[in-house]
Amino acid sequence: MTIREIRLFGDPVLTTRSDEVTEFDDSLRTLVEDMLETMDEAGGVGLAANQIGLTRRIFVYDCSHVEDGLRGHIINPVWEAVGEETQLGQEGCLSIPDISADTERYETVRVSGQDVDGNPVAMVASGLMARCIQHETDHLDGVLFLRRLTPELRKDAMAKIRTSEWFNK
Fold this sequence. Notes:
It is a single chain. By secondary structure, the chain is an alpha+beta fold. The chain has helices at 26-42, 127-140, 151-163; strands at 46-48, 58-62, 71-81, 86-93, 96-106, 108-114, 120-126. It has a single domain, classed as Peptide Deformylase. The strands form two sheets. Strands 1-2-3-6-7 form a five-stranded antiparallel β-sheet. A two-stranded antiparallel sheet has the order 4-5. β6 and β7 (120-126) form a beta hairpin. The mean pLDDT is 95.
């Protein structure tokens, strides 16, 4: 397995919609393993393929420290809200280091997709896992969580980004 470089805010790949995965082979299995290892190394709860420079519709997740056993991957995810209830909570991103802000998301979502072998997978998730599904699918659509913030919070986050050490390298 290989730890991949995480792309940072400003990289065009982060605002590019990812392509559907159509080939389920050993290279895809290796990609999933690399993504899980990269996410673990970075201390994240989710990682989308475009965050490592690949425009493929796949993300990995690990909410097992909060919700029992929820660790894995979803390929070609599609989600829908279950009900209208929302949650407001701190959200950050491995591609935007040291920036977090209260972000509104649906409380419960239903997601479907495929596993690494091309088999259908689906789950209903609430709380952190629901937030993760929405955040990572946004990545695959080329949308960063900053776009989900109120104008005031977005302005504050952008000011912090512009003065950050990682952005000004």
